[in-house]
Structures are given as C-alpha cells and as structure tokens.
Give the backbone structure.
Amino acid sequence: MAKKKPKQVVSKPRGSRSGVQLASGNQRTYTIPDYRLEKPTFTVRQVRKGDEVRYEVSGELNSPVPPIRESKYLNRQQHIEIYRWMLLNRKMEAALENLYKQGKVVGGVYFGLGQEACSCASAFALKKEDWLGPMIRNQGSTLVRGFSPRDIMMQYMAKAGSPTKGRDASSHFGDIEERNVVSPISTLGDLIPVLAGVALGARLQGCNIAVMTYIGDGGQSTGVTYEGLNFAAVQDLGLVLVVESNLWAYSTPSEMQFRVKDLAERAIAYGIPGIIVDGTDACQVYDAAHEACERARRGEGPALIEAKMMRMKGHAIHDAADYVPKALLEYWRKRDPIARLENYLLNVKKWLTPDENRKLIAAVDQQLEADREFAVASPMPEPESAAGGVYCENGCHAIKPKYAMPKVKVRTAVRVKLAEAAVHLK
Ligand SMILES: Cc1ncc(C[n+]2csc(CCOP(=O)(O)OP(=O)(O)O)c2C)c(N)n1
Ligand SMILES: [Mg+2]
C-alpha cells in the first residue's frame, strides 16, 4: 500500500513584527513610541584619578518639570486609587527603614523610592486572572496585588505570621493560590522565563492572560533575559516586561551597562512592541501597561515598556550611594512621582480638595501604624518548627489547573512520527 504522504503542517502566522515600516529599497525603519513629555539630555561619565573613581554628570539639569500626561483610560477614582497605593508604598518603606534601624528587620531592606509610579501604576493594569512577578523594588506592585503592609513588614522581620512563616527574611514571597504572584527570584532575569511559562500554562488551559514582571537596566544584560523574552515572543505569550531604567545598577551607571540609546530599542531585536514612558508619571506608566496587557490578553504576545526614572536611594539600606552625583539626585527629586501626581490631582484636575488629600494621607498613616504595631507585636516562629515548611510536605504544593483542564493537541507531524515509530517497533 502506498504510504500516505504526511500532511504538511503550516504554522499559522504569529504576532506581527511591531513598529516595522518598509521604506524604499532595502531599508527598513522601526518606531519606538515615546510617551514622555520631556527627554532628559544629560550623561554620566566615569572619572578616574589614581585609585579614586568618581562619576560626573553633564547636560541640561535645570529644565522645568513637565506636566503629567493625561491618561487615555483612567477615570478620576482610579487616579486617586493609584495615588493612594503610591503613598502606601512610600510610607511603608519609610516604616521599614525605621524598623531596620531599630534592629527589628532581619537582613536587608530594598527601596523603590522614586519608582512608586512605575510599580503601582503598572500592577494596577493587571486583572485578577493575570499574574505578577515582582522584583526587589516592587513593594508597591505587591501591595496593589493584595498583600498588606503587615504581611510585608512581618516578612522583613521573619515573623511566624509572614507569608513565608519566617523562612525567608526578605522579599522572596508570593501567592500562587489567590493573588497570582510568583515569588521574586534574586538571580536577575530568571523571573522572565518563569512568567513566560505561566502564560504558556494558561494558554494550554485555553486562556490568554497578561503576566507582568520587571527587570533593571543592569539585569537586562543577562542572557536569561534574552532567552525568556525571545521565547515569549515566538510563542506570542502575554508577557509584559517593565524595564526599570533607573540609571544605576548598584554603582554602575547605565552609560557603562549598554550601548543602545534607549533600552526600549531592544524590543526591535525581539520583534515585539517597545515603548518608552516617564517612570515618574503614573498616567504614562498605566496607559502603556494597560495597552500591553490588553494586547497580551488578545493573544498577541509580549511587549517591553521602558520606564525612565532614577533610583533615589542606594542599592539597599547598606549602600549610602555616595557615588551618585548630587546634581542628578536633585534633578529627579524635582520629578518626585508622588508630588507630581498630587499636584495633578489637587491643582490641575481639582479631583481632590486639600482637605480630602489630608484625610487620605492621614488614613494611610493610620493603616500603616496599625500594621506596624501588629507586625512588631506578632511572634517569631517556634524554634521547633524550623525544619518544617521548607520542603514540600504531603503534596502541599500540588498545583491544580487554574483556568481549565489543559487541552494539548498532538500536531499532525508529531502524530505521523509517533505512528511511524509504532510501525517500526512492530
Ligand atoms: C545574575 C545576577 N547577577 C548579579 C546579581 C547581583 N545583583 C543584585 S541586584 C544587582 C544590580 C541590579 O541593577 P538593576 O538591574 O539596574 O536593578 P536596580 O537595582 O537598579 O533596580 C546586582 C548586580 C544577581 N542578583 N543576579
Ligand atoms: Mg537599575
């Protein structure tokens, strides 16, 4: 009997290569949308004198602070909610700094000072069924996703009631049951393929979701960043990668980290959309994140958002950041994300009266004080429990399908190969 010719499997066209324009002849041009209303033009240069290494900043540092860019999507209430999350984010970190100085925090504390708009407004774009993979500066994203300040404070103090029950004294906690949060992974870039895997898992269960994670201007140089994002790109997985372009990676300025002008340009090489936003403008961050999440939920694949801002403290509490030029800090201090949004709500939109604002701030303070007291008074883990809750016990980590039972279709080519193998075995 004549062997039946295997049907040719033609892969269906995948997501469009975004931002590509065909110009005349062989030349192609690419566009990277830029939502910013101001494009800073300064550079940081390393200066060596003998054994001493310093950084100098040059360029325009006295330009006026730009206005907030009007959001295409957020309503009045949502603006106020984001503003509240940002306040909670900042004030909780201030409380953590005090707890550290009182010797109550076990380990270090990492801050997202100056990055609250990036964390809070991006996570605000996620829906319940989406997933988040926060990094060390995204305490704000973690709050937006439903962890309380007391959870986070107890975690830093390694208390028995903390998300990891005192087994980790830093930000390595998540919640795969309720909040859809993957625990941060310290090895920079490793969250990217993990989140791509979450999106793939949901896809196999018949659901396109948005999965959001973050990478720094330093961390994006790692190989796994490329591997994870490229995998998401070719599989059209809904990964929203927020590049926290905060000018420093520990004490390395971004001028010494990469040669492209803007990290969003990296998107061109992955064949996915890239966009630049002012990371200190919550409206820009939200709009870009919302658009990327909507695209992800339509099954059109990943997007890269570069949020330009400045890490306003040292790498962690142990780093005084003396290497950062003072003029640079001054420039960004004038662009404080909370002060800018507050001014927008009170003076530009008049969506909050000064009295309503005072009440909102007082309510945040009150919540934090109650949570701080609760966290401080809560017990440490019992010493006898130290060996428990570290390794999986009795299927405690059985992961059930979240969206539906996976539907795995065996592709024709694979089926033919399997049939051939079966014939061969006979
Ligand atoms: C693969 C890897 N290399 C090095 C480190 C050590 N490390 C932790 S944070 C950090 C700097 C990260 O800078 P950036 O990615 O710009 O993030 P930022 O701290 O500015 O938020 C380094 C080098 C690590 N955790 N993982
Ligand atoms: Mg950085």
